[in-house]
Here is the input.
Amino acid sequence: MAQLPEEVFMKRMILTALVLVAAMGLNAQVIKIATQSPLSGGQSAFGEQLKLGAQYAVEEAQANFKKLGFDLQLTPYDDQANPDTGVSNANRIINDPDIVGVVGHFNSGVAIPSSEVYKTVNLVMVSPANTNPRVTDRLLANVNRICGRDDVQGPAGAAFAVNELKAKKIFVLNDKSAYGQGLAQAFKDAAVKLGASIPDSAFVGTEEKTNFIPIITQVLAFNPELVYFGGTYDQIGPFTKQLRERGVKTPILGGDGLDSGDYINLAGAANATNTYYTTVAGPVSSFPKAAALAKGFKAKFGKDLEGFGIYSYDSAKIILNALEAAIKANGGKKPSRDAVTKAVRSIKYDGLTGLVTFDSKGDIAKADYFILKYDAAGVYANNKVIKSVSVDAPAAPKS
Amino acid sequence: MLLLLPQVLFDGLLLGFVYAMIALGYTMVYGVLELINFAHSEIFMIGSVVGIEVFRSLTGYVPNPYILLVVAVILGGLISGLTAVGVERLAYRPLRKRGTKNRLVPLITAFGVSFVLQDLVKLLEGLWHNEFFLSMKNVGELEQSVTLFGIFIQYKSFILIGVSLVMLGALTWLVGRTRLGLAIRSVAQDPSTAGLMGIDPEKIISRTFLIGGALGGVAGVLFALQYTTVSPYVGFLPGIKAFTAAVLGGIGNIPGAVVGGLVLGEIETLAGTFLPVLTGGAFGTEYKDVLAFLILILLLLFRPQGLLGQIVKEKV
Here is the structure.
């Protein structure tokens, strides 16, 4: 039978309501920034800083993007410091069309294979923390970093070790990862050029995480003036503890992998004091512009802001600024990933960490390197900056 | 460098005792079930985590580290032993009841249990303390040291050797001189005939898991005390090495497990210390594991029954 007027009216009302709701949904387009970092496992302290720094920047910018008609979101991923996990996450990331940029990774060994996946769709990656030269030496258009490189960090450490710590005999350890071994090799080559003595038997690689006694015995036999360890705090911490328990007072020098409050937890406050480290992410105290961020960070997340959190914040801001420019260039519509990638590479951004421009391979044109010493009282925030230098990015390798 | 040899030999002894106690768990279970209980490495890990938590949580109530150590050893052994019994009931017994003849099935189950235990502990520690690496603290006097004959020995090392010897002695007495030990040996030899003699094989199997698990747990506590840092995945490598040690000594053979553990601990420490120096850096410290496994392969090629094992001829 024919429909009653009331039924027709109800149907038309429901249809109109549905169209309005759909229109509202369509109006607020979703744009996402992804992060990939180790959120579980031994290096989660770093991974959390990376995620939270980006999260702060994204949440700060949400109101602005809402005005442009976009619902800005952060999607964090846990790469577990494992290349396989990073790559499988990367495949999920590239298949989510709303993701226009990635802040990550923390580990160079994970960043390198994952960025190959991002490259297939020209998805931009801005790294706050990857230091291995190969990350950008591959000359990919979508890979950028705002921190320094190990082929500068290593020699900076070597210069400090030989010239300032006056160390002639150095025992060099590495953790056999892309990062640790690369950094230790760069250190060794530079130190030997400056006159230090590092025979092949004193260049030791190990993945050992608990029983360092055989290595410590070697250190005792070699009797060095300095121990250099290219690795991360989850390994160097227990190593330091066992070294000091044996009564070895030799100072320890490491790279940015040592830069974490958790190092003091694992080594013990008293044991951590004679440890120096170079880093590409300066402490909060070196960046006066970051004071406001530090306060807001602590209030929002209940954790102290550390160096990599600031760099992650800046990385996210760079992607967001490039995104905004790309949206405007696209007449207010969602831009393509290519557009965002191009906009990031050509950006000029004055961030909390300084002025950021990228060279032709994605390295920051001028990076800062810091040398710090662990605080005598075991308070991480009071680690003293001994020296900081600004160095131009090395040139692209001759292919 | 050679002047350090006594020190290296002593350090190898410490590691060797840890491996020996873990190896006993593998060998005893293999003896009664012909099953390689790969979850045993996680039983060891649970013991080490219990050890750290005892020292962390009870130090407010009991400031004396020696008493804390006794509590840790007892609790570690108990919790690990009970976990092992639980694993046997939940994972291996149902497979036996089903009559699975294929020995790969319980083996793969053991791997699965291993993964479950690792991630369970990781979850628990993550929720409770938000930590992945656990650091042994509050041991006070136990970390102090003396130097005897040029060898640096910490109090906790004396304790490790002492407790290990006591546990090994107790086990030898248990297996050799008690009715329970007799029952275990008979079930290991022939379960159905043992059943005819009035022994309940299932009960004995449970008890074997309890004893083996307890030994692994105590090894874990001592390991955590000696090497200070553990994580949920710390059991994996010592577990494989201890299994290697059990095979080295003759799988199923209890003194063999001890001999295998000590030998492997010494080889690993000697190789780890001297390989770089002896080979001019060509072979680094990490090759110590390769050397240990190489020796196992060579031994199995030329003496498959292990150092102390006997070839059992099957009569048809």
Notes: DSSP finds 13 helices and 14 strands in chain A. The two ends of chain A are 80 Å apart (CA to CA).
